[in-house]
Every structure is written in structure tokens, then in C-alpha cells.
Amino acid sequence: MNMDLSRRAFLRTAGAGLAGTSLGALGFGEVEEAHAAAIRPFKLAATTETRNTCTYCSVACGILLYSKGSLAKGEKAEIIHVEGDPDHPTNRGTLCPKGAALLDMVRAETRLQSPRIRKAGSDKFERISWDEALDRVVRHMKADRDANFVAKNKDGVTVNRWTTTGFLAASATTNETAFATYKVVRSAGILVFDNQARV
Amino acid sequence: MSDFGVPSPDPTAIGDTSTPPFARLPDPETLFARRADRFRTLAKGADLGPYLDFLGRLCDVQDAVQDGLPDVPPPPPEVIARAKAHAMPPIDRTAAVADESFMAIFDRLVARAREVDMPDAARAALARVADADATARVAMAEAVVANRIPVEALAEHVFAAAAVQVHFARLAAALDATRLVPVGEGACPACGGPPVSSMVVGWPGAHGNRFCVCSTCRTAWNHVRVKCCLCGETKGISYREIEGGDGVVKAEVCEACAAQVKILYQVKDPDLDPVADDVATLALDIKMRDEGIRRGGVDPFLIGW
Fold it and tell me: Given the DSSP bridges, would you call strands B210-214 and B220-222 parallel, antiparallel or unpaired?
């Protein structure tokens, strides 16, 4: 097929006196030329469709993100539409109401883009660094676990549970990450836990 | 009213769950008539109007030649079983055009096409086809199914291709869609032909799924979205449309092949036809070629682009 096409392209560039297209050969060459001339001022718009995973819960539904603008050409790409991926075995094209509203979350001006803290007694959130945020989270978790860890139940049976902290983890990680997350969280005794390894 | 407020049995089923069939066979009895209508609709006020009108009338002929033709028997079970075992299409492309029933269709098509209004160049080509003997006609049909149409005789082969399309659509319609198996990237599971374009359909049970449409027999087969219809590559796929367009017909570009195959969002416009709308959006092919991207969809009506 390719060889055939290149031969035709060669004939055209070589200026051979042959009609090189179906239109030309059938006597519609003028129509074809007029059309080619008429569309000259128009430009092409680049769009993409990208597979991704819904961020909301452990079900990990497949989504298709439609965007406009080509990053490869140095343009700014913008998501214009989100829909369920009809080829994804988990959701087969469907989305729950939260997933169906993903576009609004992506574009929301109030979307959380960095760690923030509202200190006790304050009425507003302040931006903090990731290091600071993670240090605080760890310190609070440790204090909470020390205070509320249940090693044995009232019958004296060892249960090692920590029910006062919950852990919500990712929905689009590798199996290995999901496994490691599960091990770390469950080893700490956390019961209130969700990630994709649950499903 | 007594059911009011009772939870439905499966609250998880939100929306139209896609369970697409692997393949959908053509219905030759309505296929060409509908395509003719679509060509006529598209022809109105278009730059390409005269050409689209001509193709519409050619589709009318494709529809009319089937009147009174005997039913096509399905291939013998052993042929189907062998094809399935080796992941091969059940229709043998070369053998099919050497068949008597194909010659009958070709004869009728050539006779009926004479009544169609067409430019002198096309009429002269049709006369050459009419004068050709059986051997020459088979050779033409073989060139069509092998996708090796000689550039010196494009117009003659457009008529041959029209006859091949009718014959193959009838052959494919006699198959059992549930027994078709994938035969490779960019190849029709019924006849092995390359795709003309692909469609994102809104069929019940296949909402949003994409189907490639065979350029020869019009069988539609399920093909994952955002994946090249020619080579199966999933990286470097992007889409182009004429700026300001409504996103109904786009060119799906594969970086690996440096080629594009049109994708028709039938889910947005149910009237879209995989052939008629492909021809009518020639502008996209012209623009893409200017960017160095060749046309990957195969269509005898658009050879040379």
C-alpha cells in the first residue's frame, strides 16, 4: 500500500500528465482544485484524547480526557471534556456523579493545589510546604496512635487496632505500590483504610 | 405506583454500560441506499457537490443491482473453522472476485451505471470497462482487493471497486458475526480488508465504543479508542480537525505511521456515514498532507490523497 502511494506521489511531483486522484480521473479535477483552493485559509486544530484513571475512589474507573492544544507544538493544552472510557473493563464507559463532574474539579478555582493548614483557632487556611505538611501529619498520627491504640480488647485478646485515624490512598498506582501501601497502613493497625487494593 | 420508592435491583448500573460486539456485519439491502441519501445531503452547497452527487448516484446503482440476485450461501463450516483456527478472515479476497456471482454483479453495475449522469472522462472509463472481457474485469477486481490500483486507470477501477463493494457486502452479510475473530491490526475480520475510517458509535450497548469500518465489505469491528487503526500503536495518537469545527469528524493521527485515519463521532451525529462523510471531509486530508501526514484510510473514491 505504501509503495503504491509513494509511486503516485512521485508521479504528481514529477508532473506526469496523468490524473493522480480518483476525482481527477473521473473528470472532477476542477471541483477538486476549487475545493483545495477554498480551504487554503483554514487551519487545523489539534486535540487529544488521553486515557487516565478517575482520582476519586478505589474503584479506579477509566476515563478519557479530551484536550485542546498540542503540548508537542509548544501550545497550552486545556482539558475540554471528560467521559468514561468505554474500553475500560472496570466501568465500561460509565461514571458515577462524582466522576462525571471531574471537569469541574479540574477547572475549579478553589481546587487544592498545595498543602494547606488551618491552625487551631484560626479562620483561614495558610499555605505550607510539603515537608512541613508531612512532618505535621506524622506527628499527629503518632500522637493519636499513642493515645488511642488498642492492643487488647476487653476479653484480653490481642487485636492491635487503631481506629481513630483513617487513611485514603491512591486509585491509580501499580500493584506493587498498592501492596506496599496496604502493608504499611495495616501494620500500623489502621482499620479505616481505602485504596484500590480493596476492590 | 406501588413500586414507588422501592430501590432498583442494581443501583450500580449508572448510564449505558458498554458491552460491544466484536463485529457487526453490513446489511447490503439498506447500506447503499442510505449512503446514497447521505451523499446527496452532503452534496448540497458543498464545493465538492458535483462529485458527491455523482457518488450518490453510483451508490443508487450499487443498491439497484442487488434486485433479484439469489441469496449468498454462507461459507462451508470447514472453511469457517479453518479460518478461525488460523486467525484468518473467512472470505478469500482473491477467490471471491473470480466467482461467477461477482461477474453477474459487475455486468449489472456497468449496465446500470450508463444511466448515471457523469463527466466525459468518467463515461469514457465506463465504456472501457464495458468493453473489457471477463479476464480483464477479474484483473481489475483483483487490483481493487489487493489495493494495487494502477494510477493509469483509476477511473475504470472506481467502477470495479463499486462492484467489489456490493459483492463483498453480500458475502459478509452471510457470515455469522459471533464466529469472527481478530485477524490482525488494521485488517477486517470478515474479509481482511483495510479500514476506510472508524466510527465512535452510539449503538445501544456500545455507547462510545469505536468501530473500524472495512473498505471492502463494510463489516465494522471493535477497535479500542485512542489506538492507531493501522498499526495498533497507542502512543503518540492525536486528533486534528478544521479549526472552528464541531468535533464530529476528526483525523486520528499516528506518529509511528505518520498517517491519519478519520474518526467519525456518530455518537454526536447519527447520520454520519463511514464512506460518504469521509469523502466529504477531503479538506482534512488535504490539510494533513500539507503537514506531511498521509491518508491511511483506504477508499477507491479518494485514491491519490
Answer: antiparallel
